[in-house]
Amino acid sequence: MSSEVKGGLEDVVVSTSAICFIDGQKGRLLYRGFDIDDLVEHSSFEEVVYLLWHGALPSRKELDAHVKVLSATATRKLPPGLIVLLRALPKKTTPMEVLRTGVSALSAFDPDAADNSREATARKAVRLTAQIPTLVAAWERIRRGKPLVAPNPKLSLAANFLAMLRGGAATALEVKTFDVALMLHADHEFNASAFAARVTAATMSDLHSAITSAIGALKGPLHGGANEQVMRMVEQIGAPERAEGWIRKALADKARVMGFGHRVYRVEDPRAKHLRRLALELGQQAGNTRYVEILNTVARVVSQEKHIYPNVDLYSGAAYKSMGIPTDQFTPIFAISRVAGWAAHVMEQHANNRLIRPRAEYTGPTHATYVPIDRR
Ligand code: COA
Q: Exposed end of the chain (fewer CB within 10 Å): N or C?
């Protein structure tokens, strides 16, 4: 075979897509043509989900109908059998393992599980988008031995998740911040988890299988797991005055600094500035801006010394931490949002499918002689 090997599929265009556009040189991100800066200012996560799935902004009537079904208790609540399964898991199971297992198990309870039609996949996408926040919150309560909090159909997805997780109403700034974080994480073109979802969907497998694959890919520290690693770094640094020395030593030791660099962006990730602003506002509200101060110093040094810039994962954890969310829930929160994009990718893949099956350049032996086991 003579094709050139592109390590990590870098810059390989594997398909057309009308969902998401990234300009890595200018630092722009569009969902269905709309700049995320405009969406952050004017939209809501629920509207962004509609946009990703339907390709256009909804009318008031369409949005109301969409929100009604997405927020209904019947859509949000978990089947009792799933709660039994969650309670059977060892308490040390990490939230991402629980999420991967839970989403896979939800297919066993889904009335459309075996139906891959566009209509059935859209119904399953609504259910999964509504159920995943309940699943994430339920595990947090179960592992801490606390009673589960029932979903409230009157609350937005952001407000309801925070209420189910923490067992009390969130402030207006917390809800706004969380809603913006959900909008910013909703899709990102052919990233590793969306690609994993599309590879699975392209075998004409179902939505739950594709999203289970995607969650497995998101879990890794080079993808969604980076936000947790950033917070572990902040905790190690401890105080703003220690940040400069700590990061200079890390760079001298050739460490990979989480929350920086990107396969596509050559400038700062356009999502980072929104999360930086909101993390600072939340920190100010809570009277603790330590996390953002540490991260700003780290960002200044890494940008100057390495010319790599903050990505979406640098500031999200500081915002979540200010809301009292445990660090190992940061990546499941990424999935609460990204399920919208994964579902859009599965529907787009199914609408115009071709099996995704690349080749390898073989480097192993070609004429090995088989020696029976007792003569080796
Ligand atoms: N810290 C230190 N160096 C980094 C870096 C980081 N976060 N990201 C990239 N680099 C350096 C690499 O060491 C490499 O340098 P070299 O050519 O001297 O060896 C160069 O930049 C290219 O890195 P590479 O890993 O080949 O690029 P990639 O496109 O495969 O990597 C990421 C993209 C996202 C995996 C990478 O930037 C990374 O590991 N970032 C940290 C994890 C993270 O925040 N992930 C979330 C992404 S949204």
A: C
